[in-house]
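Weekly structure sync, notes
Attendees: PL (lead), two postdocs, one rotation student
Agenda item 3: pending single-chain targets
PL asked that the sequence for the first pending target be pasted directly into the notes so everyone works from the same version. It is reproduced below exactly as submitted, 126 residues in total.
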Amino acid sequence: MVDQQGSRPAVTRTTTPVITTSLYEAAFSTTGEHPQCGVALARTEDEARQRLADMLFLCDPTAPATADITALSRAQLVNSYTGTVGEVFAQVAAEASVVERRCGPAGDIAAQIHRGAWPHLRGQGR
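Predicted structure, written out during the meeting:
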């Protein structure tokens, strides 16, 4: 058997690692016909917003929801959101530059959900 590690070229790092002293928690919960909840950890506040948006994206946009982003190292609440899932998603997306890079302008996604462009997100595609 040949040692494969010795024959591979060294991998060079192309990006600078993100060094942070904080860890962020993004969490949400919904109520209604199909209650849901989720928690995600992130290294930056922007990444926490993106993870929160990712979790909220497939929830019923009309369901009542609460969501928080907490800086764990400071034990401090960074942001708190309330409203329907669609409203919370729009608030988070408006603050998150990463959401815009993935989905287009933040308001477009929330507007499309509310206009019924994606019926399965409004609970009609069951």
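Discussion points:
- The two ends are 54 Å apart (CA to CA).
- The helical segments are 4-7, 45-56, 85-95, 97-103, 106-115.
Action: rotation student to compare against the earlier draft before next sync.
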